[in-house]
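User: If only I could read backbone structure tokens as easily as an amino acid sequence. Those tokens are not coordinates but codes from a learned vocabulary of shapes. Could you go through the record with me and say what the backbone is doing? Here is the record:
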Amino acid sequence: MTPKTFEARCLRLPAATKVVQWEGTSVFKVGGKMFALGGGFAAGSGGYMFKVSDMGYAMLIEHGVARPAPYLARAKWVQLASNNALPDAELTAYLAQAHALIVAKLTRKSRKALGLD
């Protein structure tokens, strides 16, 4: 998946926003909380980074598709071995899941304000 497509897929998710931080890294957030990273720092150290479920974390790492993301591994974030480590459709599904995991942790008031409830 190209960086432009990655950005488009992230921003297509409900209430998703993008800020540029840390060495030009595109940080994708929902409700002010990160769910994916691309470019800048992420590109310099490998592929895209995103939040995953416990099972997704184990599976992606075990199959060598991803590794624990630097600084974010304890929060169950992975970094793809390369930007093309997963087919586009599969990566899109993981991004939607990352978004959903973060939305689930937002307060009911925040979800309602963002139109997610």
